[in-house]
Amino acid sequence: QVQLVESGGGLVQPGGSLRLSCAASGSTFSINTMAWYRQAPGKARELVARITSGGSTNYVDSVKGRFTISRDNAKNTVYLQMNSLKPEDAAVYYCWQGGWWGKGTLVTVSS
Question: Got the DSSP string for 1-14?
Answer without folding.
Answer: --EEEEE--EEE-T
